[in-house]
């Protein structure tokens, strides 16, 4: 079975500062890993995904994440936060061929001016 | 090309009533997934359907919940005799192909409130 833990339900950073959202996973087989973003009153949008190719994955809006097998982590980063990054972020795991994602509980990112 | 459409956005029901949540997938998508998000929790998988078939319902509660995706029309998630614990956001997602977990497109969700 797979599981995901997102450390910190709320993260607050200043505009221009580094964004770091933490995600640790558990999987008995090589996982697929995802980050989704949810803006207020909207559905989830895929930010980026890891599917066993390059361990450093670049996504939309300047976000990237690094798959670290030894740490079972897939943390999301962005060098410089923008006000428009304020949203809820979800990390998710699945296995190849599976039709269902297992989500973390989400991290609400607040950007301070 | 319209995205995944869910309606209603907000649904209020009294205990014991029925709730029907609708999901129209993106054009050309034949795979639909329903997820539920309880307060302060992540999204949890409920059911995966293709046209006229339930493929995986391992996340569906055993009683009161059912889902369908008919040949014509939207997918419907039906909750009979709702209880307060059913209050949650229900999200639908669709995909165009069998590797659905790589390209899932989500709707904006239906917020169900049970009084």
Summary keywords:
heterodimer, A: six-stranded mixed sheet, B: 115 residues, four-stranded antiparallel sheet, 49% strand, globular
Structure description:
The complex is a heterodimer of chains A (113) and B (115). In chain A, the strands form 2 sheets. In chain A, strands 2, 4, 5, 9, 10 and 11 form a 6-stranded mixed beta sheet that branches. In chain A, strands 1-3-8-7-6 form a 5-stranded antiparallel beta sheet, with no helix packed on it. Chain A is globular and about 40 Å long. The relative contact order of chain A is 0.33. Chain A has strands spanning 3-7, 10-14, 19-26, 31-38, 44-50, 56-58, 64-68, 73-78, 87-95, 102-103, 107-112. By secondary structure, chain A is mainly β. In chain A, strand 6 and strand 7 (64-68) form a beta hairpin. Chain A has no helices and 11 strands. The model of chain A has no long low-confidence stretch (mean pLDDT 92). The N and C termini of chain A lie far apart (41 Å). The termini of chain B are far apart. Chain B is globular, with a radius of gyration of 13 Å. Chain B has no helices and 11 strands. With 115 residues, chain B is mainly β. In chain B, the strands form 2 sheets. In chain B, strands 2, 4, 5, 6, 9, 10 and 11 form a 7-stranded mixed beta sheet that branches. Chain B has a 4-stranded antiparallel beta sheet with strand order 1-3-8-7, with no helix packed on it. Classes of the chains: A mainly beta (113), B mainly beta (115). The A-B interface holds A 4, 6, 9, 32, 36, 41-46, 49, 51, 90, 92, 94, 97-106 and B 3-4, 31, 33, 35, 40-45, 48, 55-56, 58-59, 91, 93, 99-109.
